[in-house]
Amino acid sequence: MTKVTVRATQPGDVDALLQLQARVYPTIAPWQRDHLARQLAVFPEGQLVAEINQRIVGCASSLIILWDEWADEHTWHDITAAGTFSTHNPQGLTLYGAEVFVDPSLRGQRVGHRLYEGRRQLCRRLNLRRIIACGRLPGYRALADQMPVELYVKKVLWGDLVDPVLSFQLREGFRFCGIMSDYLPEDVDSCGQASLIAWVNPDYDPTRPKAAASSLTASTEISP
Fold first, then answer.
1. What's this model's pTM, rounded to 2 decimal places?
2. 3-state class (DSSP) for residue 111
3. Cα–Cα distances in Å, from 145 out to 141, 151, 152, 159, 191?
4. What torsion do the CA atoms of 64, 15, 110, 136 make, to the nearest 10 degrees?
5. One digit per residue, pLDDT tens: the chain, 224 residues?
6. Of the candidates 147, 100, 105, 129, which has an alpha carbon nearest to the alpha carbon of residue 6?
7. CA angle 114, 116, 117 (to 5 degrees)
8. For a 10 Å CB count at each end of the chain, is N or C smaller?
């Protein structure tokens, strides 16, 4: 299997990320260049890229939040401040997964798994309580006229259906926690719906302070 490495995102990666995102989400407006710069400025440790043979093939971006402020229904635009991450709060205990995308030609190469593992390692290193994200449901559009989204997700949980994103997240150890309606209205494949998912850090220690974030260099790789 091809070796996949995960490292911290660097400013020089922006062009490649914008090009890859446009390929992955042709119907969704890509990030703006200044938004990526802002993400790197406010929380560089939370921005990861995956590489194969020094070519960027995936990305995972995240921020830290106070989950109690966002536990009710929210949208992607609200919780990420439209992708600028100005809602990042280093006092929080929740790593919020804002985005993951992978080169569609590399399915089966475990690129997504390596990015998720990179996030888990970051969560452990910073002594955060959990990772929370709202995942797309790209398989729902084809069945939306046959069932409500709640039933669609139940069928994925029961194993009757496979959703390209939620089924993967369940295999990665995340728990399904509910539906976020109108989370990303422009996501037509998901009919704007998203699944709220959570991973609880088994190594979280409330008796020790949350670790201070420290910038990672371009050469830093996340261990397999």
1. 0.91
2. helix
3. 8, 12, 11, 20, 11
4. 60
5. 679 999 999 999 999 999 999 888 887 777 888 999 999 999 999 999 999 999 999 999 999 999 988 888 899 999 999 999 999 999 999 999 999 999 999 988 899 999 999 999 999 999 999 999 999 999 999 999 999 999 999 999 999 999 999 999 999 999 999 999 999 999 999 999 999 999 999 999 998 877 655 444 444 455 65
6. 100
7. 60
8. N
Task: Give the chain's domains with CATH numbers.
Answer: 5-200 (3.40.630.30)
Type of residue at 174: F
194 Cβ contact partners less than 8 Å away, ≥ 6 residues apart = 76, 134, 135, 136, 137, 179, 180, 183, 184, 187
Query: Which strands, in side-by-side order, build the sheet including 47-52?
Result: 5-8, 47-52, 55-65, 94-102, 130-136, 194-200, 175-180
Q: Residue with structure tokens 């990772």?
A: 131
Residue 203 CB neighbour total at 10 angstroms? 10
Q: Distances in Å between the alpha carbon of 193 and those of 100, 179, 216?
A: 16, 7, 34
CA separation for the pair 80, 85 (Å, rounded): 5
Provide DSSP, 63-85: EEE-GGGT-S---HHHHTTTTT-
For 204, other C-beta atoms within 10 Å of its C-beta total 16
Q: Would you state the pLDDT for residue 216?
A: 44
